Every structure is written in C-alpha cells, then in structure tokens.
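Sequence in, structure out. First:
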Amino acid sequence: MKKFQRLNEIMNQLHSFKQVSVKELSIKFDVSEETIRRDFEQLEEEGVINRAHGGAVLSKEVDVPYSYRSIINQREKKKISEKVLKILKNHHSIMADSSSTVLEALRLLSSEDKAYTVITNSIHLLYELSTTQLNFVSTGGDLKPDSGTLVGAQSIETINNYYTDVTLLSCSSMTPNGFSVANKAEGLTKKSMLEHGKINIMLVDSSKFSETNDALFKFADYTNIDYFITEDDIPNYLKIELTKYNVKII
C-alpha cells in the first residue's frame, strides 16, 4: 500500500470510528508504529486530525473523505451531470475542481467524441479518466489525502496560467451567504479557479443546502457564478439569492 492510500484509509477509519490507535493501524497496514506516527504528524500539519495519547481523533474542521463523498447521493449527481453536459458540449476547455459531482460530469463527457482540455487539481479525476480522450493538465501542488485534492501555491500558480471556457465547481455548503468548504487551502484553490473561467458553473446536490450552516471557508459569492445546477427543487431562501444576482438555474 502506497503512502497516500494509507493516509486516505486512516481518514476513512476516523470518519467511521471517530478515533484510531497507533498500535491497531500498524497491525492493519503491516507497518511500524513509527510509520503511523509520521503519518499522524503529516495529517496533523494539514489540519485534518488531532493527535491524542496513543492515537488520533478527527479535527472538527476536516472535510468528508473523497471515498465517502464518491458513493453518496449517486442518483442526484447523475441528474446534475446530465444537465451540465448540454452546456459543456459547446466548449473546449474546462477548469475542474476535485469534487465528486464534477468527476461524475466529466465521466459522462469523456464518452463524447471530442478532445476537451481539462485543468484539474483532482488526483481521482486524473487517475480514473487518464485513458480517455480528455486532455489533462494537472495543477500539481500539496496533496490533501482525505479528499485527493492538490492545493497550495504551486496549484494556484498553475491555475493562474490558464483561462478556460468553463469552470466547474462544487461546495461543502450552500447558504444565503454563499458557497463554502471545510478547508481554507482547498477554498483558496477554488477561488483562483473562479477567476479564470469565462463561464462559472456551480454543481450542488440538495444535501448541501442550508439556511445557516456555513462551512469554515467561503470561496464564492453568488456574483461569482453564471450557472447553478442541482437535481431537485431549490428552497426559497436560496432561490431568492440566485435570482437577485441573475444566476441561471438549470
């Protein structure tokens, strides 16, 4: 098992059981306890865990692991993807974040007989769709193992070199205040993506809707978005904001 796979599995264990021990993980992964402690040190530096005596607990500010996000609300994500495909067919270049909803949309797009260029900070998207007709540019950057996201100065520097026809993003929470995520570094990367797309499209399934529950870091206002796509009815408290700022609802 490679290190990034081990880190991702540690995050999965934490989301399932709330806390993990050095000893149990060393047995599970067949590595030394010192290796697990170094893994904990890295994850703590990234702000996703807090080390405790003999183990670790999940940080309150951490996002849900990608492996969880990728399997929930599949029906809703497919509906959203089918809607966005109609817009993408008319364009050639796409900036794509690391959300599971965006990946679902690009899965559909990859079956099209057209060579789109995709700039992305998602290692899952790069891995899964690397053999398709899509032409990928990786942003590079520091890896967030829980979400498979590349973030930081290198990632933003790469993004700043490109201007795409479309930018596709999602969020952890959507409220009348705007769009937010649980991690600042990831939010700053999304914010940079929004500045380099001619058309910005937000893909949000209804489980992310909230009247008051913002995530830690706000990365977008309604003024930053051109299209909003969801699978279901939009509550009035959000529809008011979308309408106020002339966001096209699909």
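Second:
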Amino acid sequence: MDPLVSVDLGSATPPYEQIRSQISALIATGALAPGDRLPTVRSLAADLGLAGGTIARAYKELEAAGQIQSRRRAGTVVAPAAPGGGAQAPAAGVPAEVIGAVDLLISAGREARLSDELLLDLVRGQLRRTGTERRLPDGKP
C-alpha cells in the first residue's frame, strides 16, 4: 500500500488529513479490501518521512469513522463492509459508472496539469454550487 499513499509537504492540507483521505479513497474504490493489512504506524512514518504521531492521528480518524480496525496482534486492517452497504462499504456499493466518471475526471485533470488539491477543490466547489454537497457525520465534506 505504501506507494499508493504520498504526502505533499507544501500543501495547505495537513499531512495526517492527506493520509486519511488517501486511505479512505483506497477503501472506497476497493483498492483496499476488508481484512487488508495496513502498514504499521512506525513503518508508514519511516516510508513517508513523517512523525509517528501524524500517522497515528490519520489511523485514529479512520478507525473512528469505522473504516479500519486496530487489533493488538493482527495489526491495523480495513474494517469489514457495513451490513447493507453503509457509508463505509467499499467499491461494491459504488456504481461502475461513477468510478468511470471519476477516472475520466482524474485523467482530464492530469492532462491539464492540475494538482490533486485543485482538482478536489473544483469538485467541492461544484458540489456546493449545485447545492448537493453532503456532509459526513463528523462534519467533513
């Protein structure tokens, strides 16, 4: 999983939030399936050149959202899908057309040389403009 997570230290978004967001996206798209092990806090911190507390905070927020579980001897794993395809359900709950549209958006953004942060800001802005942005229970968009 490590190569799929990166941190832009020049970004206004805090590193823990970048990590939380990327892991959440990997779970949502099915790149990380229920039961998949995540790197240890120490291992991921070393790989990304960050403090362990930064990784621990990202993991803590993911665990609070029900997306991952920390088990004493088994380490940290992706949580099982919520029964009935709840908010934490992986890609099985996301229509293929939506994933395809997101892939097209990402490709167009890459071709236009937009940063990931700008691309996300554009999506959030459009959601707000159309009045369809939904907030998660923790208050985050």
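Remark: The chain has five helices and two strands.
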